[in-house]
Sequence to fold (192 residues):
Amino acid sequence: MWPERAATLLDGPTRLTRPRPAGRNGGMARSPRSSEAGSPISGTMRSMVARKSGRSPSGSLGVALWDFMAIAKALADEQRVRLLLALQGRELCLCQLVELVGLAPSTVSKHMSILRQARLVEGRKDGRWMYYRLAGPRALAAVRQAIDWVRRSLADDPGAARDAERLEAILTIDAQRLCERQSRPKRKPRTK
Fold:
């Protein structure tokens, strides 16, 4: 029932809202803005509904074009392409990816979220750790073609070769120890 009801919401500006308790505005509950926390339809839910209904979340694009746009967005960032290349033929923990690109864990997690939304990578959670791998053989043809295109285009890139060497060194470190090391709070230097 929820996806069908949510699909009707994609046709216009109307949104499902939870009743809000009366506030200081004379008992009138105000309608939420789309940017407010707790929006009833998240981006993930919107894309799931769009795929089932055969249209894009905005209602104007076809599913194939929407998939293309998601893939193009995912590949439009150098760090995301580096992360995608690192996953060739292996599954990596988020902490290993953080060590490779040298960004904050939250930033790498956001990049991986965008890659997952485009369905270029798959993820699984194992306890505290999140593991990622490239989309498998059951992925959409557009996804498989995009991954192959990135691989072929950057096969001789010196930056990709440096990342591959660096990744081999990172893989020699125990993943659990690497995650613990990254999660330790950094100490501020003492000043006298």
